[in-house]
Amino acid sequence: MLLHAPRALYIHIPFCTNKCHYCDFTSYVLKGQPVDEYLEALEREMIATVQAMPPEEIRTVFVGGGTPTVLTPPQMERFLAMVKRHFPLAADVEFSMEANPGTVEPDKLAAMREGGVNRISFGVQSFDNALLERIGRIHNVDDVYRSIEQARTAGFSNLSIDLMFGLPGQSVETLADSVTRALALELTHYSLYGLKVEENTLFHKLYERNELLLPPEEDELAMYMHLIDRLTGAGYGHYEISNFAKPGYESRHNITYWRNEPYYGIGAGAHGYAKGLRHVNVKGVQPYIDATLTRLPRLSTETVDEREAMEDFMMVGLRLLGGVKNEDFMAQFEGRRIEEAFGETISRLVSDGLLERVTDTGNGGYKLSAKGVPLGNEVFGAFLGE
Question: Which family does it belong to (predicted)?
Answer without folding.
Answer: Belongs to the anaerobic coproporphyrinogen-III oxidase family. HemW subfamily.
